[in-house]
Structures are given as C-alpha cells and as structure tokens.
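If you are new to this repository, start here. Below is one unmodified record pulled from the training split, so you can see the exact layout before writing a loader.
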Amino acid sequence: MRIGILTAGGDCPGINAAIRGVGKTAILEHSMEVIGISSGFLGLINEEYVTLDEGVLSGILTVGGTILGTSRENPFKKGSSFNAIDKPKLIKKHYQELGLDALVCIGGNGTQRTAAMLSEEGLNVIGIPKTIDNDVWGTDVTFGFDSALWIATEAIDRLHTTANSHKRIMVIEVMGHHAGWLALYSGIAGGGDVILLPEIGFDVNYVARCLKRRAVNKKPYSIVVVAEGINTPKGESAGGYIANSIKELTGLETRETILGYIQRGGSPSPMDRVLATRYGAYAVELIARKKFGQMVSLKGDTVTSVPLPEVGGKLRLVPPDSALIDKARKMGICFGSENC
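And here is the target side for that same chain:
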C-alpha cells in the first residue's frame, strides 16, 4: 500500500513523533510506501511531496514543529478564488495520480472537519487529533496538550516568586480560544487563586472582591490564570482586560503576562511523545484493516477510533459542573462567579 501523511493547522509539540509513529509502523510492519505531503492540504493542491524513508524519520521523535510544514488552508472554504480553482476536486485528482491508498491527516478541529469532508468525496482518510487546546471532540486527550501544560505551569511557578517579592497581583493569559482545559489544569497545577475559563461566565466584580478579600486576610500576592478566549470587550486581550479591571476595582498593583506562542513550541513532553507514537501506530493499523473514515482517539488508556463525521464541527469543552472544578472551588479557587 502507498499512504500519504500531512500536518495541518497550528503547530504543536508531538507532530513529528506522530509522523514517525505512522511512518515507521507503515514501513517496518506493513512494508508500505510513505509519502509526506508539504504544508497541509496545500501540498495536495500544489503537488508538493517527499518520500519518507527510515532515514528521514530517524531523529525526529524529540523535535518540535513538523518536518512536513503546515498551513491553515481549508480547501472547502468558499472565497473569491474558490470558483476559479475547485480545490477538493484538485486534491482528489492528485491523490489518485499519486496512487495513494490512504491519507493520514494530523491536525485539530478544522483539520478533522476537512478530513471528514474529503472522506465523503471518496478518499480513504484517517485523522489523528493534535492541539494544545485539548478541544477535539471524540478523544479524552490530544497530543500537544501535556507539553503546553508543562510550559504554562512552569511560567506560573516562576510568576509566584515575582508576585511574592513585589506583593502584587499577577495575571497570566494562556491559550484556549473556546476551551479552557489549559487554563484549568495549569491554574490548578500552578496554584492559581483565580481561574477564568470561556465555559464559565464571570463577573470582574466578583474577581475583584475575591482578590481584595485575600489582601485583607494578609495574603501578600495573588495569581490569576486567564484563558485567552474568555468574553471581553472587543479589541482587548483577555489578560489586559482582566489586569486593567482589577487595578481599577481594587487599587492593588497588578501586572499581566501573555504567554503566547511559546506554549506551542519546543520539544514534546515524554507523555506527548508516547501518545503521538501510539496514535501514529494505530492509524496505520486502521489502514491495514481498511477501516477508513476514522479518527484515532484515546478512551481511558485504550487507543481506539471514532467516525470522522461525528467529530467535524464539534468541540470538547470543559464541563462547568466537572468534579475538578467543584474540588477546586472547595479549595478556595475563584472562577469569577458569585460562589467565589
């Protein structure tokens, strides 16, 4: 068999480990030929490919980013140039010309939605979920999340010393457009006093009240962890809005830190290396069994799969009534609502 691999959407730690997991399993266990497609779906549109052999795959397990490159190209998005170039038709044509028996698409929500649509077009597609946001529906966890969690938690750990030295409030903004998994887990792991998530409505007055109460109770400093996707006035960053609001409402010295793209870079954590490798190997197993139109997923400690059509267009969000949030509240962590 001849299979193709592409990586699409934002980069994150562990993609190369997944490419390696797919490639080595395909080559060594099933004697498949593996074709790497450059720059996501653009590579299939522009015919940019490279053969992946053991030599190419050697040494990439620990490397961040993606050796294939990536892009946010959505071939099904209608725009000014859509009528001039029928991109899905072109992708199907090049897929057939390459003689591919299957296509592995490594990416987040948008990539899995596109993969599902290509599957409906008749391509044999397998999806592998990756994103630091951990918001892909159908799997308990995506690779990339654990690495980002380590980075965010270490940043919070470091802010504790500065906050304590200057007796100030430190606001740290972490990634998470719609899902607050990274803010929730890093906030708890890093000892955050306030955690604000997109899934839970908040009132800055309650946040200010919580922080003032801490100051009155002789708590010398506070840490506020904010997901970038919380609801704020248009044009203001989440961290900036919360920090400025706290200053105005409490009069306490406040600083913000926006962690940004540093959360997506660098070498993957050991856990992400293992998970990405497991995902890649299982993707090849699905191909060998000719079980297409699936996304690899983790349920408990078991790697399995879910149908791609069930994944597209959905998000895995933090349940506001989750047991973890309940336990955090009982420990005194404020989530910006009246029960702070």
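Two things worth knowing about this chain: The mean pLDDT is 95. The radius of gyration is 22 Å.
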